Amino acid sequence: MGLWYDSPVITFDSLTLKAWIEENREFLTGARIQKIQQPTRKDFVLTLRSKGESKKLYININPQFHHICFMSKENEEKRLIEIPQKPPMFCMLLRKYLENALISRVNQPPYERILEFYIETYNELSEKIYLCLAVELMGKHSNVVLYNDDTNIILGCAHNVGAEKSREREMAGTLPYIYPPKQNKSDILTYNGEIDFQTLDKNFYWFSKSFVSQTKGCSLEQLKDFVRLKNLSPVIGEDFKVYTLFSTLLQNSVKQNSVNEMLDNYYTFYQAKDRFKNLNLHLMTVVNSRLKKLENSIEKMTSQLQDIENSDKYRLRGDLIMANLYNLKDFVSEVAVFDYENNMDVAITLDPSKTLKENANHFYKLYNKSKTKKSKLSELLAEAEMSVKYLKEVVYTIESSTDISNLLEISTELEPEKAAKEKLKKAVEPEEVTIDGFKVYIGKNNRQNDYIVSKLAKDEDYWFHTKDCPGSHVLLKCPAPSDELIYECAKIAKEYSSGSNSSKVGVVYTKRKYLRKPPAANLGFVTYRNEKEILVS
Fold it and tell me: Which distant-in-sequence residues (6+ apart) come within 8 Å of 70 by Cβ?
């Protein structure tokens, strides 16, 4: 659901941050920072221990997904967080100052999208020092800043901001930390006039554009209650397009148990979509690049083979010279002979520094060299054509994938050098359906296709695949299927193929014992015999 949205519609605003802080203040106050990790330049994971339990605080400063929340284990997996072996410099700085440190209090500067963690820790001389970790969730200006609370001097930032980016607020180590410039707005809690929803976000704090769009038509008192966080009831729209802190503002919504759960679920949905989209694009780029190289190679090899087809002329020249040794002279640059194969007179250019026999042997060597080259080129051409067929199968599986787990399997298949680094929890099992009480397995990528043939299939099981077009391997666990059952499995093979929208597609099927995996063949590639073909329309 909601798969057509590329990025979050709702941006993380100051009122949402206020609600989240109030909800989690008790846990955060007095929490100890056990572990600090930085998966990328734009997100952080802090493991906090408080009141007998540990939680993972997730901080994201990506302009597209900026937010903060405690991650559930399920959503941590969906985000596909990977911890690098070598942590970034800023992560090392945070670990140096903050690991095992205590959060004494949390604060939100008035109306700002800034969360401040005030931290008590000790320096190298065992002297207590007070630091502040400021998490700024401000769209493209989002940042994480560590500074000394006593001197207000910045110790480090997630990313520095130079004068060329901001004249009013430079951010870098050794510079003083200052808040963003104040906005010319009022606090609605002290206001008693008329409400203009066209300018509400420009005139009053706490109201972002997205929140204003939800509150249109509400009374001034209702707006004040929202700012006071009265009747808090977080929900997410059924299509995941929006979320709100107040269920009365949104119809067709899914109730959330807390503000944190709302943020965790909402942003996980879009981050997972973004990872899927980026991985899909990356894999398609890799495959298309390899396809282009292979197709260029095939074109060159085909051209070379066509040239080699004329290699018989070398043999013929050698034969004609040897047949005319008795009436020709050595050490000449050209001889005229009769071509008995083509029934015509021909002139043959020779090397005048060689005898006739030496010239004939030279032509025979060229002929044998061409034969060897032809054999090798034919072998390479067959391998290249097989690789093209395999990559077209991969293109189909990428295009038809809807689950990132499938894409991760394809990724480890295409880039085995990265496979060892990938922490793929477990291989995705092929899809299983039941028809007339018999199990049918459907491979969604070449790794699953290979698993079906190598592990799941028994000799008497039936294997199905579309003829001459990329598609899934389909396995029927039934030793003696009826014609109706065979046709149903053939329909599945057509449905899970690149010919799914064609009016008619041929599907071949045979028993597993008639399949063969050639040595060193690509994943999912098999040859077959004793097959039958059925036309599915």
Answer: 24, 55, 56, 57, 58, 260, 264
- Residue 188 is given by DSSP the state G
In a shared domain, residues 383 and 251: no
Contact 168, 179 (CB under 8 A): no
Summarised one tens digit per residue, pLDDT across range 268-322 is: 999 999 999 999 999 999 999 999 999 999 999 998 888 777 777 888 888 899 9
52 dihedral zone (left: phi>0; alpha: psi -120 to 50; beta): left
Token digits of residue 195: 């409400």
Residues 109 and 243 in one domain: no
Residue 81's identity, in one-letter code, is I
Residue 44 host element (H or E): strand 43-50
**Cα-based distances in Å from 129 to 49, 91, 106, 148, 152:** 21, 19, 17, 8, 12
Nearest to 502 by CA among 471, 460, 462: 471
Token pair recorded at residue 233: 């009831």
Same domain as 439, residue 364: no
- Enter the pTM of the model: 0.77
Decide: residue 9, CB within 10 A, 0-12 exposed, 13-18 middle, 19+ buried: middle
Q: Which of 49, 51, 142, 35 is nearest to 94 (CA)?
A: 35
| Residue ranges in the chain modelled with pLDDT below 70 | 1-7, 417-428
Tell me, yes or no, whether 471 and 338 share the same domain.
no
